[in-house]
Every structure is written in C-alpha cells, then in structure tokens.
Specification:
about 450 residues; alpha/beta; N-utilizing Substance Protein B Homolog, Chain A; Alpha-Beta Plaits; Rossmann fold; 3 domains; nine-stranded mixed sheet; four-stranded antiparallel sheet; 19 helices; about 15% strand
C-alpha cells in the first residue's frame, strides 16, 4: 500500500516487520520491496532498518515487557499490531522518547486508551532487563534475555559451555563490523581504503585476507558511494570471503560451485582467478540465479557458466579440479546479521538440511577428479550439519577421501576431534558464525 504523507517511524517499522513475518522473507528483501512501493519514505530508510534490527534482536524481551506491564501478549495480536507494540515498547525502554509520541503511536493499535498510561510509561523506562527475566531459570532465562529461540540457546550451551554461550549471545545482539570485498581487478585495497576514509568511514585493511576492508562505523549509505556504483567493492562478510581464499582457484582449473546463488562466492572465485579459471555455477533456483546473472554483467565476468540444476544429482562425472559446496543450512550463524530468522527457525529443520548436505557432498565426490579438493562451508553452528557429516563421509569412503586443513586458517578448530575443520564465531572473529572444511579425493 502506498502512502502520500510521512508516517511515524514506528508504524513504518511495524509494516515492514509484518511483511517479514507473514512472508518469512529477509528483512533486506522486505525493505527493498517496501521502499520501492513507498518512495516518499526513502529519507527514513536507514533509520527504519536500524530500528527494525533492534526490535528483532529484542523481540522476546519486548514481549515480556508487554505482558508484565501492559497485560498484553503480542503473540495474540495481529502481525501489524504485535510489531507496532514491540516498536513502541522498544523506544520507551531503550530510547529517550516523550510520552506524547508514544500516545500518538498507540492510536494506531486501536486498543483501549488507558492501556499505556504515563505511569506505565515511566515504569517501562526504568526496566532492568536482567531483573525482568529473573523469574526464569537457566537456559530459558538466557533465551528470553537475549531474545533467541530456547532450543538455540540449549544447543549453544551443549556445544560451547556457559561462559562462551553468554559471550556469543551478547555478540548476536550487538553491532558487528561491516566487511567489504575489494574488486582487486579494478583497485588496490589500500587506495580504496583511503578513498572510503575520505567519505567519513572508519575503514581499515584486514590483516588476514588481502582483499578485505573492515568498516567499524557506518556514517553514510555505502550503496550511494561512487566506489560502489563503479563496482570497486562488494558487501560480503569476511567469513564468506574466506571461503574463496581457501578454495584458491588457479588459472585453467575447472571449478564447480554446486549451490551458487545468489553468487557472492562464485564472483569472488572468478576475481581470484583473474577470470582465467573455468567456473560452472549451478543452483536449483532460477530466480536466485538471476542475482548472479546481474553480478556477472555488472562486474564484466567472462569465465562463469550459469546452470540451473539440482546438484544432488550428478551433473558431470570426475571432471572438476575443485568443487565448492555451500548448501542451504539452519543459518544459526546469521542470527546477528539476519535476526528475523529467530521468528521462524525450527530445530526439526536441522535434520532435513543435514540429509540434503550429505547428498550434496556424495555427489561432489563423484564429480571431483582424483586428488581434487572439495571445499564445504555452512553459516551454522550445529555439528549435525558439519562435523557429524564429515565423520560419516570419511568412514563410509574409507581410504578414498581425507580431510585437509583449510588455508588460511584464521578461526578455531572444529569439534569431535576434527582439528582440520575451521570455525568462526561472532564474539571472537567479528564475523557471522561459519564452518569450513576441505576434502581431498584419494
């Protein structure tokens, strides 16, 4: 629906989050479509994004405040009303807003006028989150305090222990750096870093990867910069960029990206090979491959063949030097970057994903040459989608496949005794949560 008049930011956020919840789509995509339909609201786009992220990262805590002080349970309200209520409560509890602003927004809820009195407003402003959740015990207290699904916290506790779990939960609700992949075929990283600083950005070269810049504070829209329009950099997380360096494409090598859409890793592989490797980018989704087609055109990439295919079924046999398997997963490593997935991620999906991931790895082993290397990566923490699959593959293909250490190795070693597996964590490495493993076919 289009609007001619500027509306309260709380209502804008509620409408965006209503769309996110209803369609179960990413916040990024929801915002893209929302502001395309409401061009007059473009000036508040950046504020709306930051506000939406804050609400998503605190949704369980906000629901607890609503129940405790307002006697309302957002889960029982319509999608629009629950998200508007969360937005109003977030502003009251965590920002310096005036009561008259809250009263103005309450009208959009169309509930009884005395539900949010000045007295209640003042009480919510004094809320101590740690005291609020004291009625809960153990894992549930942490889950409500940091607004994560309870089963996610339980799994983190089992995997990392109490101290590390609390650290990672805090990092999942904090602002992490933004990472840029430099288009080294067009610009030197040091030169780009200097130019970004002139735009007022806190930009520094990454010490681990030669084509990565860290942006600690964002003061301007990156997509409005001439350097972005001229394709001098690509917004991509450091953990994801690391995958390309681990695979390390060489000229004339035949490389397959089995789950290529939307294309960030495939385009990086093309860049790293100076367009001299022979890349095949396959994905089951034609719609998502259109993003890769756009990137190929924008970056003038000449060495990628795009293929719509289900990579679980053998595409070619024994003809690739290197293969990248970056499958769909439970995405628990994205709980900071994409907090909207907290609203619908379900533990039962893990077993569905792990089955698919195992089939993809088996297919990759049929398509890789002898002595070829398969690089496997996921943006999740679970062992079911990582180390447990690796053990099964190695045991089933006894003496025909081995784990090799992914280099550069800048993360932590894996679990279940698999030290050659590399893991990255938000609280340690300031990236999304990520797991990388490499297999050599013997």
């Amino acid at each position: 629906m289009k609007y001619r008049m500027l509306k309260p930011i709380e209502v804008v956020v509620a409408e965006i989050l209503e769309y996110v919840e209803r369609e179960r789509i990413s916040l990024r995509l929801a915002m893209e479509q929302y502001f395309q339909a409401n061009k007059n609201l473009q000036p508040i786009r950046g504020i709306a994004r930051a506000f939406s992220l804050a609400v998503l990262r605190n949704y369980r805590l906000l629901d607890e405040i609503c129940a405790e002080y307002l006697g309302l349970r957002p889960k029982n309200l319509s999608l629009f009303k629950r998200n508007l209520l969360r937005a109003i409560v977030y502003e009251t509890a965590f920002r310096e807003v005036e009561y008259r602003r809250v009263k103005k927004c309450i009208k959009y809820l169309k509930i009884r006028s005395n539900v949010f009195t000045r007295k209640i407003f003042n009480e919510i402003r004094e809320v101590d989150p740690d005291c609020l959740v004291k009625k809960y015990r153990g894992i549930e207290r942490l889950a409500v305090r940091y607004s994560e699904p309870t089963w996610v916290v339980r799994r983190l506790m089992k995997l990392l222990g109490m101290d590390e779990t609390i650290k990672i939960l805090r990092s999942l609700n904090s602002q992490l750096p933004l990472w840029l992949r430099v288009n080294t075929l067009k610009v030197n990283p040091s030169e780009l870093c200097r130019r970004l600083r002139k735009h007022g950005l806190d930009a520094t070269l990454d010490p681990d990867l030669p084509d990565v810049i860290k942006i600690s504070k964002i003061g301007v829209s990156l997509k409005r910069l001439p350097e972005y329009r001229n394709n001098l950099f690509y917004i991509q997380n450091k953990a994801s960029i690391l995958v390309g360096h681990v695979l390390a494409p060489k000229p004339c090598e035949k490389i397959l990206d089995m789950c290529a859409a939307p294309g960030s890793k495939a385009t990086h592989l093309a860049q790293l090979s100076n367009f001299k490797a022979h890349l095949t980018a396959a994905d089951i989704s034609y719609t998502r491959l259109r993003f890769l087609q756009n990137y190929v055109r924008c970056f003038n990439i000449i060495n990628i063949d795009i293929l719509v295919a289900d990579s679980r079924f053998q595409i070619y046999r024994g003809c690739f030097d290197k293969i990248l398997v970056d499958p769909d997963c439970s995405s628990l490593g994205l709980l900071n970057h994409s907090p909207e997935i907290r609203l619908w991620i379900d533990e039962k999906f893990i077993h569905v994903y792990s089955s698919m991931q195992r089939r993809l790895l088996e297919a990759a082993l049929k398509m890789i040459k002898k002595n070829g290397v398969i690089t496997y990566s996921t943006c999740t923490f679970t062992t079911e989608e990582n180390e447990l699959i690796f053990k099964e593959i190695i045991e089933y293909h006894d003496n025909r496949v081995e784990l090799v250490e992914p280099k550069p190795f800048i993360g932590d070693p894996g679990f279940l005794g698999l030290d050659k597996v590399q893991r990255l964590y938000p609280h340690k490495h300031k990236t999304i949560g990520f797991t990388i493993a490499c297999f050599r076919k013997l």
